[in-house]
Amino acid sequence: MTTTRPRQLSIKDVMTTSVVTVSSSATFHEVAELMQRYGISAVPVVDERAVIGIVSEADLLVKEAPPAGGWKLWAEPRKERLVRVKAADTTAADVMTAPVVTAQPDEPLARGARRMREREVKRLPVVADDGTLVGIVSRRDLLSAPPE
To answer: Domains along the chain?
Structure first.
């Protein structure tokens, strides 16, 4: 009697395929409005069908609210200064995180989860071999996957 091993789940099995995106020229307010309207916490930035970055709520919050006590440039850690400077402009291109960490549809869920943990990201845009956006996978998607 032959036993077959169950198929390993891949990113395409749990990803969301209808992804809200913005162009690099989208304004801060357009991005924030889309996030609010669709109840999402980030949007991929797409130009010429390729993902060039991602704008998250964290990127937008820096623009909206300086730290308590205001900006103290002389005491500000380099990473915080870079984030603040990045958020000073008003387009998606100016505030996006790039390069973006991505996944491919056929890669195993475990590999995607490991990449999210190692790169400290909450979601991965899913791209085809030609760089075209085909979906997005979040931590919630990974956690909702049926056990293998």
So the answer is: 11-143 (3.10.580.10)
